[in-house]
């Protein structure tokens, strides 16, 4: 994975390195904030170079925040107090807390520049990072050490050749973070850990920063991504740091991965403002909204009447329950529908019971070929605008069909997954089922950045435009339900969960073979992760 270079399309890169910064806005206020910790070897030179670059161009000021340095940094800064605003932490609090300290002294009408004090960032590049803000092309600009100014080169070859500046472990870590952010947020940011950045007026006030270490740069970036603000990366030349990095690769990488994950949950509304209570409140609002629609029965029937429904039911030895399921479908009094039952080699009298039923098309497998293959056969024979899959074991209530269809009809989704977590379940879910769904939820989230809690349920609705997801599926057993979701996400279909009621099986027990299912799921995850990465590389 680490050997693959990220190539950014030519139209996504502004070649600012070769463009002089026009002083179109001499009155712009620029506030340069520099966090320092034991930077005695470099900070004086950095400040002097900033004055040389900025004095004839901008109305600017410099704020340096010392984070409890133990070398000669503090004394040097005190001697330069006439040239800078000087702040200090009484003890070492971390880079994130130090930046937040500096931000409290910034005004909303200022352009904010942050850069490190170790000599790695060149003050001469500040005008290039300010220019997109002045030109109205960005709200936030990141100076990227990895982005070559020649788009076809991908990552900056000059920077990567110098192993003293960036060791291989940090390079691997940055690559993983880059891919992870792309997978979860669909944002291509090559240097998420860059400490050289600019913010447009008022942008800093929009940030909600909760972390204190080196993960702060990632947190800032994802804050702005979640807010939908414009982020631009500009290739920068990099100087040689005068010291070893203060970053702990293992500890800080784990913190960064945590930030990426938790902020994605916040974006999806799962942890709004970081509180479980708010999450429950948000879910309750959604449920209430759907329940209001349920009460509008006549309106729903009117809308459903313009769609043909194909209800696909797989069957394997369900003679004690399947007739009850079909009778409940009849009770819905649907106007335009068909019921397709595919029997997967039943050895009881299921087939005899199903023959000659009204609106039921029966297809029979001579032998058992698996749940997934059975569903695909039924879906391929469907002629409806909306295709509903529902199990024949009596756990699902057909009366929930109009509710799930409504989410597609109102153009909120392409696929709806019936979810007991948005409705209710009337028995104790076995531990293996709950743990398995949680495991799948996390993996799907990491690969696609999507959250589907009831990911193993068989009660689903598909618009006919989505039927291409059933082509070339690899798994025909119980892993089929997970593969459908991954195939849908890979093709960028909108998948949502809708409320259903779930009941315990009235008779019999589950036929899921747990070990076989687990092995198939692992292969499925690896397969779709690889496909996801390939798409990322091609972009």
Automatic annotation (TrEMBL):
<dbReference type="Pfam" id="PF00535">
    <property type="entry name" value="Glycos_transf_2"/>
</dbReference>
<keyword id="KW-0175">Coiled coil</keyword>
<dbReference type="GO" id="GO:0016757">
    <property type="term" value="F:glycosyltransferase activity"/>
</dbReference>
<dbReference type="InterPro" id="IPR029044">
    <property type="entry name" value="Nucleotide-diphossugar_trans"/>
</dbReference>
<dbReference type="InterPro" id="IPR001173">
    <property type="entry name" value="Glyco_trans_2-like"/>
</dbReference>
<feature type="domain" description="Glycosyltransferase 2-like">
    <location>
        <begin position="32"/>
        <end position="166"/>
    </location>
</feature>
<protein>
    <submittedName>
        <fullName>Glycosyltransferase family 2 protein</fullName>
    </submittedName>
</protein>
<dbReference type="InterPro" id="IPR050256">
    <property type="entry name" value="Glycosyltransferase_2"/>
</dbReference>
<feature type="coiled-coil region">
    <location>
        <begin position="70"/>
        <end position="97"/>
    </location>
</feature>
<feature type="domain" description="Glycosyltransferase 2-like">
    <location>
        <begin position="310"/>
        <end position="459"/>
    </location>
</feature>
């Amino acid at each position: 994975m680490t050997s693959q270079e990220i190539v950014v399309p030519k139209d996504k890169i502004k070649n600012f390195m070769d463009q002089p910064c026009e002083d179109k806005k001499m009155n712009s206020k620029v506030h340069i904030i520099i966090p320092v910790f034991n930077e005695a070897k470099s900070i004086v030179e950095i400040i002097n170079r900033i004055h040389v670059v900025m004095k004839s161009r901008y109305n600017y000021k410099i704020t340096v925040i010392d984070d409890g340095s133990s070398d000669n940094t503090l004394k040097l800064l005190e001697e330069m107090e006439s040239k800078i605003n000087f702040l200090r932490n009484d003890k070492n609090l971390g880079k994130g807390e130090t930046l937040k300290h500096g931000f409290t002294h910034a005004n909303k009408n200022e352009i904010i520049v942050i850069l490190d004090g170790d000599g790695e960032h060149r003050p001469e590049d500040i005008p290039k990072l300010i220019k997109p803000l002045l030109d109205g092309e960005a709200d936030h600009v990141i100076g990227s050490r990895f982005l070559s100014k020649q788009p076809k080169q991908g990552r900056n070859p000059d920077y990567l050749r110098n192993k003293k500046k960036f060791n291989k472990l940090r390079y691997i870590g940055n690559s993983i973070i880059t891919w992870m952010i792309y997978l979860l947020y669909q944002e291509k940011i090559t240097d998420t850990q860059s400490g050289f950045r600019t913010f447009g007026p008022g942008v800093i006030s929009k940030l909600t920063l909760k972390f204190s270490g080196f993960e702060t740069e990632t947190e800032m970036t994802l804050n702005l991504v979640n807010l939908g603000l414009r982020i631009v990366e500009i290739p920068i030349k990099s100087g040689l740091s005068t010291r070893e990095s203060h970053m702990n690769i293992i500890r800080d990488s784990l913190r960064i991965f945590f930030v990426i994950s938790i902020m994605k949950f916040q974006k999806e509304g799962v942890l709004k403002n970081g509180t479980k209570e708010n999450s429950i409140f948000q879910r309750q609002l959604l449920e209430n909204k759907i329940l209001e629609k349920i009460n509008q029965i006549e309106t729903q029937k009117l809308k459903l009447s313009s769609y043909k429904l194909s209800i696909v039911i797989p069957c394997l030895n369900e003679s004690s329950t399947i007739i009850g399921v079909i009778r409940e479908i009849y009770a819905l009094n649907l106007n335009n529908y068909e019921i397709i039952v595919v029997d997967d080699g039943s050895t009881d009298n299921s087939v005899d019971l199903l023959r000659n039923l009204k609106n039921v098309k029966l297809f029979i497998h001579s032998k058992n070929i698996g749940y997934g293959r059975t569903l695909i056969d039924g879906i391929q024979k469907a002629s409806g605008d909306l295709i509903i899959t529902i199990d024949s074991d009596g756990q699902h209530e057909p009366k929930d069909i109009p509710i799930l269809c409504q989410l597609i009809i109102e153009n909120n989704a392409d696929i709806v997954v019936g979810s007991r977590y948005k409705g209710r379940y009337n028995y104790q879910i076995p531990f293996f089922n709950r743990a398995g769904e949680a495991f799948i939820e996390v993996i799907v989230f990491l690969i696609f950045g999507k959250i589907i809690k009831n990911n193993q349920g068989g009660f689903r609705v598909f618009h006919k435009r989505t039927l291409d997801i059933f082509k070339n599926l690899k798994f025909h057993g119980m892993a089929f339900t997970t593969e459908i979701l991954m195939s849908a996400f890979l093709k960028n279909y909108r998948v949502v969960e809708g409320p259903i009621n779930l009941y315990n099986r009235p008779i019999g027990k589950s036929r899921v073979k747990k070990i076989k299912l687990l092995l198939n799921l692992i292969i499925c995850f690896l397969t779709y992760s690889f496909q996801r990465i390939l798409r990322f590389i091609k972009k």
